[in-house]
Amino acid sequence: MKRIAYFNGKIGDYEELVIPFSDRSIFFGDSIYEAVLVLDHKPFTLDLHLDRLYNSCALTEIRFEMTREDLKKEIDKLLAVSDMGCIMLYLQVTRGNAPRKHEYPANATPNLLMYTSAFNLPPKDKRASLLSMEDLRFQYCNIKTTNLLPNVFAAQKATASGATEALFHRGDRVTEAAHSSILMIKDGTVVMPPLDNLILPSITRAVIQQICEEAGIPVDVRIFTVDELLAADEIMLCSTTKNVIFVYEVDGKPVGGKDAALRDTIQSRFAEKIFEETGVRL
Description:
- By secondary structure, the chain is α+β, with helices and mostly antiparallel strands.
- It has 7 helices and 15 strands.
């Protein structure tokens, strides 16, 4: 598949489309982003992603004034010239162009970047593994900003060790993974960490919470420790790029695998949500 890119209304080849050198995302990572799963030109949970995108803009004071309806129209233009099948739609809103200076100008006009590319979701029976490490990121993890260097380091370290993902913790408290959310199942209850400034409000997590509410599955939103996670009946790894997969190893030691019924219920109902919104069965 040829990757298609978009910049402020212009659509072209991913490798050839250019952005201004003075864009603040280049010097400071001064931008926010979203990644959306698209199946046969139908985005999954697009409205939830746009909710988070506009919230991230507000929290970073990026004055992105394009209306939600107009943004959807621009997305549709890009998807119309993209391939069918399973693709990933990436959106990035930067603060805009300005001379290099730490303080940002009040009148900067944001830039909108997007691209699409083919994507393969992992199989739902993938046996994921985690490598635990101290969470060294900053205090604004609830904003989906492009300042991702600590996540990059963590993901690389996990991959180099043969693990699927990094398990972040601050002291004993489990936060999340390098680019996924971490939930657990214990005694028939789905346990989720609280959504504070140390946790990205995951879209996939929100769908799982909705599934639990509809199915009468108990949910407990609270802080939990690494030791609690290791003793969980199941450990869930969830994100737009993974959907919902389960963890069977942390730091080389076996974990989970004790509640197959609830695990299968969540995965099957998640797949049904995708089908309801896109018409595609995975």
